Amino acid sequence: MNSTQEPPPLEGRTVLVAGASGGIGEGMTLGLLQQGAVVVAAGRDAARLRRVSDYADGCGPGTLHTQVIDVADSDSAAVRRELTERYGLFDGAVISIGNWGPPRRAGILDTTDEVWDEMIADNLTSHFRALRAVTPLIAPNGALVHLSGFSAEIPYPGAALVGATNAAKKSLLRSLTAELDGQGPRTYELVIGPIRTRPRAALGADSPAWLTALELGHHAGRLVAGLGPWADEPLQYLLDRASGVHTTVPL
Ligand SMILES: NC(=O)c1ccc[n+]([C@@H]2O[C@H](COP(=O)([O-])OP(=O)(O)OC[C@H]3O[C@@H](n4cnc5c(N)ncnc54)[C@H](OP(=O)(O)O)[C@@H]3O)[C@@H](O)[C@H]2O)c1
Questions:
Q1: Does the beta carbon of 25 sit less than 6 angstroms from any atom of ligand 1?
Q2: 132 lines ligand 1 (CB under 6 A)
Q3: CB neighbours of 64 closer than 8 A, spacing ≥ 6?
């Protein structure tokens, strides 16, 4: 990607990865380290973060820190205080949180209130709070990268709440972008297809046609650095390796 004469694109930049313990989050962490960033890998559980360290630490010119914190805590001011005291402003942040449980659920008519509440809490309220806590911590010339799934755009029978929360997450990001109105960090909403991750592969869900979490991390890193043909595109669709990057719905 770089000639040997060029410094790594994220050298000297600090990037927060929220949800670093997840399948995509660990790939993001590795990709950003390979691009030279100081990566703050954040998650709610120390043991899960240790697995990220085992996977990614020492793998880049960049430096890894792990941080136990819940970016989706209702006390966003406390989250901000804790992160700022330790790291100051970030040059970039990736929000890669969520909990979809088993891929197929009951149909809408058979979905209980409990399942509804849990899905909304983990896949929508958490994103709202993470955005509220983290966006003000990013330098005005920095970048925020947020992920939603392509089920935002299509019917998703058997997993309607996955689709509904993805559509709502995407909407949140687009409104945030409009509210910032060019005055805050650049924002990127990446609407992604299935991604090759270690946890998904362990469950037998894997395909060479899918982008890997590491490739997604390299893409996010270029966006944080403001490099490449997509740096000015706030909404991007990355469905699989063959279709590349689109800026309108590739239906
Ligand atoms: N994997 C895919 O193919 C795919 C496809 C489309 C979209 N996506 C999107 O990509 C993002 C990450 O996916 P993934 O596959 O990496 O998921 P994952 O492996 O399940 O990891 C998600 C991480 O989010 C954190 N998390 C879960 N619930 C949370 C909450 N309520 N508050 C704060 N953190 C929470 C968990 O970390 P801790 O519990 O350790 O804090 C977990 O490690 C999700 O937003 C998902 O919508 C993924």
A1: yes
A2: no
A3: 29, 33, 39, 41, 52, 53, 56, 57, 58
- Nearest to residue 91, comparing CAs of 180, 12, 153, 201? 12
- Identify which of 180, 197, 168, 172 has the alpha carbon closest to the alpha carbon of residue 143: 180
Query: In the chain, what are the domains?
Result: 14-246 (3.40.50.720)
Helix (H) or strand (E) holding 140: strand 138-149
**What is each CA distance from 108 to 27, 103, 125, 136, 154, in whole angstroms?**
33, 14, 20, 36, 15
Mutation test residue for ligand 1: of 53, 96, 117, 207, the one with most atoms within 8 Å of CB:
96
Confidence of residue 6 (pLDDT cuts 50, 70, 90): confident
Strand-strand pairing, 138-149 and 195-196: unpaired
User: What are the CB-based long-range contacts (under 8 Å, 24+) for 148-154?
Assistant: 148/173, 148/189, 148/190, 148/191, 148/192, 149/191, 149/192, 149/193, 150/191, 150/192, 150/193, 150/237, 150/239, 152/191, 153/191, 153/249, 153/251, 154/251
User: Helices then strands (H, E): number in the chain?
Assistant: 8, 10
Residue with the two structure tokens 């941080």: 67
State the Cα–Cα distance between residues 25 and 42, nearest whole angstrom. 9
> How confident is the model over 185-227, as pLDDT tens digits?
999 999 999 999 999 999 999 999 999 999 999 999 999 999 9
- Quote the CA–CA distance of 167 and 171 in Å, as a whole number: 6
